[in-house]
Amino acid sequence: MENRDPVVHLDRNFWIVTAVFAVLSAISVWYFGTFDFVRLLPESAAPAGDIDALTRFLLMSSGPLFIFVIGYLLYFTIAYRVRRSDPPDAIGTQIHDNHSLELWWTVIPTIFVVVMAIFSVKIWYNIEVAQPTNGIAVESIGHQWYYTFRYPNVHGEIPNEMHLEVGVPVTLHVTSSDVIHSFWVPTMRIKADMVPGLINTLHFTPLNPGTYKIICTEFCGTLHGEMEKQTVVIEDHAHFTAWYNGWVAKTKNVSDAIAAASAGAIPLTGGSASAGQATFAAKCSACHKIAPFDQKIVGPGLKGILDDPKHPNLVDGQKATPENVAAILQHGYKGDIGAMPDMTANGLSNKDIANLVEFLKNQK
Amino acid sequence: MRPLAIRAHPIVLGVSLFLASELMFFAGLFAAYFDLRAGSAVWPPPGTHVNILEGTIGTVLLALSSGFAIGLTRALDRGGAAAGRPWLFAGIVSAVLFVALTVYGWSEETFGIGSSAYGSLYYTMTGFHLLHVIAGIVLLIALFFGLRAPAFVADHRAGAEGIMYYWHFVFAVWLGLYATLYLLR
Amino acid sequence: MNPFSTDHKRIGLWYMATSLAFFCVAGLLALLIRAQLARPDGTLLDAHVYDQVFTLHGTAMIFFVIAPFGLGLGNYLVPLQIGARDMAFPRLNAFSYWMFLLGGLTVFAGALTAGGAAATGWTAYVPLSVLPVGPGAGQDLWIAGLLMASVSSVATAINLLVTTIVYRAPGMTMWRMPILTWEMVATSLLILMAFPPLMAVLAMLWIDRHLGGHFFDAAAGGNPILYQHLFWFFGHPEVYVMILPFFGVITEIVATFSRKPVFGYVGLVLSSFAIAGLSMGVWAHHMFSTGEVANGFFAGVSFLIAVPTGIKFFNWIGTMWRGSILLTTPMLFAIGFMLNFLLGGITGVMVASPPIDFHATDSYFVVAHFHSTLAGGSLFAVFAAVFFWFPKVFGVRTRESLGRWCFGLLFVGFNATFLPMYVMGAEGMPRRVATYPDIGHLALLNGIASTGALVMLAGVLVFAAAIVIALRERVPAGDNPWGAYTLEWATSSPPPEYNFDTLPEIRSERPVFDAEHPGMGTGTAR
């Protein structure tokens, strides 16, 4: 065991290069410590600063690590290279291991990554959990290949742009109507995958007015690359209110129409189930089956729609009564997971609707 | 315990490692089952009744078959290849009955693989298991004829051991399926 | 040449040659990607063709280049390194090879179908890969090809494990096996754990596509996130299947050309198993942005993997310390590997942090990160391995000058291609897009990246030239041209079909060194 843990003196050159690496490390810490991330990408919302701070911390810690590892690697390569004067069969110092050294370079990195993990989870808690929720709640829905947005008291989905007000915290719920998309605003440093059937939530507070890109980062089909043409507009209170009230007013007639629907409801008396069956086959069966709810084509199966304890409410949240089914047939429905055309688009008469409701009543 | 020479035989070792990978395959299916079950408010969906009696009979049949396989191994250990054949025959017959019962059970079900996520899981899990049972029957039949070989040398013996490991594994997976699909639901 | 040969050296060579052939195809696809992205709003490829190109590039590099090259190398070297005559199951071994070849051809055959090849990325996320209006037969061939590759990998893993457990030569205890053999053991265990769930999820995907299944259909009780869980339960261990063998390659090369024993042999072995074990518990760090996973747990375990990986770096540098370092071509590639992989490792720690991942995931930052590990890392080790074992496999030398040019071009080209991508990602460029707008520095950075890709092409051409010239010049190499220490260098080059006439006495992990330096003692207590 003559070669085990030999006492090897570190020569002067070793300490000189170590000092050089220490200086370079100090420079890298200074560089990353003062690096202006906004030069790469502006910050437009509250968590961006936190995330950049974490990135800065990781870069400041990694820089010295990188310099020392690469430094010794290259220094040993040069210092211990075989020279012309060396005998051809020269071998290195036959050192097999050094247990205390190995212990140190296991323990120190472990402490290092635990610190980084704690800091990461703390920031994660800040941006996911500890955000104010007293502002506005907005939804965004991913489609192939565009985003739409839903706001309180605005009927339907707003296309093209998402507007937000400076300083008002946002709770953003995202989902998808078809495949998985993602909602990324690089200037906010946050991203949420939009998964059909699931709601994913982001919290942030817009800070700097401006127009910022929304980008889909989850590959979603042929025109995936087109899904970076939409924007989020951050603006002051006056501009935001004007935009928002505009949408409330624009969709007011639709909302009113729904409210009025109960008044202008279609009379359901005298419907014929057999005529309804024929209409169903012609107009509905492309998207709906007479089968349990779960058996979807485009829309759900409609067997027992008026008598399904598992689904007491219709898609619009109303109770499953013949009148409310008729209302959906009359006005159509547009929601997160698809859309149903109204009676005009479907070419249905008042009589057809009465017949269809009668037919559906019998499908228990 | 069988002699170490057999347990450390490359064929037996290889089969054991193969069964470890098989375990991970079924673990994937079970993980899918419990993941979807945990995410559903109502489980299983209404209208998906399975026949516990059939499941129990199937369990008994596979248990018998596995037991007969132990009988075979004991007979081989005592040195009689010929003495093992009745055990093997009984094991094959119970396994064939299990296949028949499973296929009959499927034809009785009121739901299909496309009815719901539950239907997809039910048929996929029982289907892959059934494929393993059928492969096992083929192996047992091959062994049945292999036992006639005049010189039943060590490699044959290790091969028989490997088939037995596989066969007990198929039964063990069935126990998991029985508990999951019939008892816990 | 007998196509039904079951000799492990023949099969290992075919494995490696085939994966290099797939590398040429996948590399050309990468050049197409860089050509399309060289300028903003590129028009070379339409979006659907571009989607097929990046899908095939990723699928091929992962399943048919990097991973099988490692397995081919293991096939060739493990029996030689432990003094065995062949693999435990030679016919199963041949089956593995043919399944691998067939699987690769099947995936590429998608390009000949009407709808084109699979175009949903190498991850084939649902529901995109299920939609009937979306991908057609190409996606089915992709599933079939990956199933074949999985079967092949599992069979090879079983074969390697049984070989190392049962067929070690007298004196070759487990603790005297070369590090490369150890890495193959760890890799094989990972394959056994990770590939079967992949097969299960591929089967589910096929059932959803063709039998009306609802595994991943949220509207019928399924869950699209389930696919991601099962896929990444495979996918992350697969990352280590693609790096552990190459950690072994680097270890052998660094020790040989430092003229020293491996520093901290036991630590290196244990760190491999630590990496393998931890890698089973980190899969959901690919899914932070879904909002569906326990971020704290998966981030913590992911961070911890940095520790055993760091141990490997320290041990390599420890091995070089006070060595007699020969800067041969394989050693240059090994040093290049360490430089590139260290950057990939450090950026890996960054994206393991959920808040940073929320920003960086699926951007070019992540593209740069995994190319640092897989291209700058594994691929550099592939070249290192080819130059290192070429004299053993063919009995002839490659020209050192060509090897150096190859390294220089690849190193410069690699860094020119992928370093700009970190900045692209930080500036907000998403991955898998066929075009990008002319904003920020994107035009400049992409231009540099595409130029770098051409430099890499030049490096690969020099590589091909080095191989062809060596095979034509036929300068005999001798049994042990590098003065290496493990058993494969104790036999002739190329080794005879039965591998060894006689074996030297095995008293340590360096039997050849012990034989050449009888007075030195082994220096190990094992």
Task: Explain how this protein is built.
Helices cover 41% and strands 16% of the residues of chain A. With 364 residues, chain A is α+β, with helices and mostly antiparallel strands. Chain A has 3 domains: 12-79 and 93-128, no CATH class; 136-261, Immunoglobulin-like (Sandwich), CATH 2.60.40; 273-361, Cupredoxins -  blue copper proteins (Immunoglobulin-like), CATH 2.60.40. In chain A, helix 1 runs antiparallel to helix 2 (46-79) and helix 2 (46-79) runs antiparallel to helix 3 (99-128). Chain B is mainly alpha-helical and 185 residues long. In chain B, helix 2 packs antiparallel against helix 5 and helix 4 (81-108) packs antiparallel against helix 5. The model of chain B has no long low-confidence stretch (mean pLDDT 89). In chain C, helix 2 (47-81) packs antiparallel against helix 3 (90-109), helix 7 (244-258) crosses helix 12 (364-394) and helix 10 runs parallel beside helix 13 (400-426). The chains are: A alpha+beta (364), B mainly alpha (185), C mainly alpha (526).
Q: How many beta-strand runs of chain A?
A: 11
Side-by-side strand order of the widest sheet of chain A: 2-1-4-7
Distance between the termini of chain A: 86 Å
CATH superfamily of the domain at 1-217 in chain C: Cytochrome c oxidase-like, subunit I domain
Helical amount among residues of chain A, as a percent range? 40-55%
Label the CATH architecture of the largest domain in chain A: Sandwich
Q: How would you sum up the global shape of chain C? A: globular
CATH superfamily of the largest domain in chain A: Cupredoxins -  blue copper proteins
Total beta strand runs of chain C? 0
Q: For the report, how would you describe the main beta sheet of chain C?
A: none
For the largest interface, the chains and their residue counts are: A-C, 90 and 96 residues
